[in-house]
User: Fold these one by one.
Assistant:
Number 1:
Amino acid sequence: MRVRDLPLPEQFVAHFADRGIRELYPPQAAAVDAGVCAGENVVAAVPTASGKTLIAELALVTADGPGLYVCPLRALAREKYEAFAALPGVDAAIATGDFDATGEALAGTDVVVATSEKVDSAIRNGASWVDDLACVAVDEVHLLGAERRGPTLEVTLATLRRRNPELQVVALSATVDNPEAIAEWLDAALVESEWRPVDLRTGVAVGGNVTFDDGTTTAVAVPNAAVGEAEAGGADDGPPGDTEVTAALVADAVDQGGQCLAFVRSRTEAVALAERLADDRLAERLGTESAATAAADEVADVDGTATGQRLADCLRVGVAFHHAGLRAGHRAVVEEAFRAREIACICATPTLAAGVNVPARRVVVRDQKRYAGSAMEWLPTLEVHQMCGRAGRPGLDPYGEAVLVGDEDTRAELVARYVEGEPEAVESKLTDPASLRTHVLSAIATGFAESEAEILDVFEGTFYAREAGAGGLADAVAVAVDDLVAAGLVRRETGGVETYRLAATPVGSTASKQYVRPETAERIVSGLRTAAGMRNPTTLTVFEVVCDTPDMQDTYLGNAERAEIYRFARANAGALTTAMDEPDDFEEWLESVKTARILDEWIGGATVEELVASYRIGPGDLDSRVERAEWLLSAAEALAETIGVRVPAVARARSRL
Ligand code: ADP
């Protein structure tokens, strides 16, 4: 099927042709056959890199009115926004700022790219543009199964569809075990395909020998195993370590002109592997030394943190690490340099696989397990498939190769789980009590529901309800309502005998509009009251309050640091709203004190470089905490006004941030 035969204005045909898109890929053609250009609901469950974005673009440009592209991952939103903004004559806007209010400015645009949280927040704040939509496209719809984010996605979609039954829904999913359930939920035609633009073979490496699923094998020379292991601090004989096998697989691909992605379990491992690969002169072998040096200089200009320095040192020789502790500016340089084929390898945590479009000749998955609490757990098949799916660049690589590094003992398990195994089914997480409280409060505060029965009506259109029936939520909803009443966010207004109506209290209403969790609002309100009664509440006081909420990220507290933070908390007890014998979870509270201390030093003039060095956090962690704190302080100001309490330190902290 040719693009020019589609019902598209000539300028779009020319636009796509400029990008090398003239003939539709088979799953795209199937989506057109299913009516994606004719207002029909379509779910496309196809592998990574098989052209899902075009399916969404076709739906949105042929829709009879404004469109919304829901992007559950912030990291992806900008890339998608740029794709829409480049469409001729299309006025696109992006709304990803974590949790800010209405976005009325978005009215009048042709396509809005937003996270599900942003859309949820807009609905709660009564934004009218959401009712004018003709089409909504949802990317990564399988994230429906993710904690927190999943329930927000399904409730938001259900609400949009309830308010606008004519709305066209196009949902894009990775390959999962139950795409037909998602299609049924959305009353959509299902396009399911295993087709990929570049062939992919997946194999397991034991030592230097790789056996692929198509029966082919490859052998790479692993340098003296004994030396490698001794350097890594392991045993000094025996089979080569996973790191050495990984290095050999990377060097082998680079020598054939291909780039690599190497996935490991943690940030520390990503840095360690990159620094190990830095010995292998990869840029020289790829022939891109000067471009790699330029990328290194760009990273060095971002800031003077040790993380930035280490990244620049790696880049200079053609390798990078990539994880959530990097600043957005660091990550952008790495991704760009990799796409431009200036560097040979990125060592990454699994976040890269879901987030960013960085195809490579060979993907090496060194670690297939990660810590979950105290034990190591196998990664979900879906996640490993997303990593493997990054292998093979259309038009550039003859094929893509994904290699799982294992040993004799794990070989069979790796084959069964990840080479031959099917990805998991998507399951709703809506019954999680914390998520349910949030969405129950929102249903009441927006006036969509005034009784438990009406709350169930709101949830009627969720994926959960489609699978299990909304009635299955009745008990959990009743518990959530009781919790919200006990927390002072909802009240029961009695009418006649035994009839009552649920309404949000002023605090509940503010919490919903500010888009904070019920528990966050509760903690801020009690913290503000305590602070108001203190002789001299400081900025540290208010940071302690907002950092001690579930909406602030945890900050890791190492053993060595624990005693120091404990001393700090004691010395500053007079400025904290929590007495030291008060917290149920003392460790968690100490972590909050650490975050509060970092933020307080930040507004006191400490530099990123200093804070990263003294608190051993990633520079990107500081950025994300500052951003969260800004939002939580603005919520605290709104809550202070709602309850009529004055704590000037809130505004002071906020303006200095
Ligand atoms: P996905 O979202 O499925 O991971 P993308 O939509 O990012 O994949 O597409 C991957 C790449 O394939 C993009 O660079 C895109 O421009 C290209 N592409 C998509 N459809 C076609 C097509 N029909 N012909 C040629 N290239 C295409």
Note: The chain has 29 helices and 19 strands.
Number 2:
Amino acid sequence: ASSMVDFTPWPQDLAARYRDAGYWIDRPLTRILDGQLSASGAHEAIICGDRRFTYADLDALSRNLAGRLAETGLGHGDTALVQLPNLAELYIVFFALLRIGVVPVNALFSHRRMEMAEYFRQVEPALVIGSRGHELFRDNQFADELRGLGAGLLLLLDDEDPAISLKHWLTPGPALPENSAPTPPHEVAFFQLSGGSTGTPKLIPRTHNDYDYSIRASVEICGVTAETRFLCALPAGHNFPLSSPGALGVFHAGGTVVMAPSPEPMTCFDLIAAERVTMVPLVPPAVALWLRLAEDDPVRREQLASLDLMLVGGASFAEATARRVPELLGCRLQQVFGMAEGLVNYTRLDDPPELVFATQGRPISPDDEVRVLDEAGNPVQDGTPGALATRGPYTFRGYYRSPEHNARAFDADGFYHSGDVVVRESGYLRVVGRIKDQINRGGEKIAAEEIENLLLRHADITHAALVATPDAHLGEKSCAFLVLRDGSEKLGPPALRRHLLALGIAEYKLPDRFRFVSALPLTAVGKIDKRRLRESLVNENA
Ligand code: J2J
């Protein structure tokens, strides 16, 4: 194959501007590793359980895999669907695929059959890499299905059979062919996952140029250095722990990434103490758990002595909680408001406390253009809430193969409308609401329409609406309002959960609550009145 993976390019004038300003350096993302080899090949890049990988190891292993994959004929124009847990292999595979110009999607480990099948359908991967530790690949059924659908090669971490064992494919083999290379820097390097608000999960093509800029700039803003010891406890493929400044930012600076299986505080505190971790990105519910453990147990709190900086983002973070971070955890706080589509905002390390605690920061780049718009699409005054629209040197220009959705998500000037409601003051943003039909369950995003469609596949359900309901721990939980067919048996939550799980959705997408109603309220224009549904839940709790 020698075609390219399609994407919507930036207009020429903007692309020229981003190059002139030095944002786009026309080098592939693999330069992040190449840069470390001469100076610090022996330095530790990744600590993963009792395994330690130097930069030289990371380079050699990714080259081993790249060489073997290239030998099978994989290269430009090919895509890969990858689903790995928080292990060093996730980065090794990522760099291996980048090296030979195979464009990967990193599915989350929490994704199940529905999400995996959907990503598979969209990118038609020639290669699938999964793990026997995941329910989907425990037996051979799903793997055989994917082979039948055209996955020419399927590798599984820890398989017995060397022919398909990722561990075996990482051992030295055929050398990387001279002519194999990453995709051109202005083309797609990999796909990021969209949190989504539509019926099917959308993919975000990210180019080397745009992603690399967001990483280099984030490294500056977050003060990442070769001394940084970064704890990756969020799902490693997610945009936040990957790039804001993320593991890739740490590799760029020559620091060390310490893998954790989850943000669960007991394990993380032990790892921080043992590996002298200095930096960690977290979502707000995890911060709350960390605060509780540190508060309850002074011995535990001492384990955090090396921790210098906590980045918090992904969902609304209450100011009162933010203020407790330095006090109780003894580290600095940096708020992050980012999106896999591009735009990332940070509070700055030298910002005064009122900005650090009460805002979600300002954009990375002087060339991030941000508009805050009223319902008619006109700019609002500073201090007034409005819908966020943005374009810039690392904000994408179109979802993969989604012309209809792109027509709605982008305006005539190429600004991406994120669906967030923000207030801007002196350039700093606060996230105050949302107009997209999405539930943000502690940083995990749920597209209401996706779940409603799946609920409606149940023979006894005639109408379904999924809305957010406030939750003390997660910030938001989901509630499904259902109208049942006349005369149908009463359906209980367990049966409904079984229905959804059988369809194969990730567990975080299961509605936390169900409410059965005789009809859904409608707005004047006949749409489901979700505001009223949300209000009825709040009143219920009062
Ligand atoms: C409120 N809402 C926030 C915040 C994101 C860094 C950090 C986070 C993400 C991320 C990311 C928020 N306060 N601080 O990609 O690089 C909500 C908004 C936003 C959506 C994006 C990164 N930080 N959000 O969360 O693609 O609604 O990226 O549009 O998963 O999360 O979600 P996602």
Note: The two ends are 61 Å apart (CA to CA).
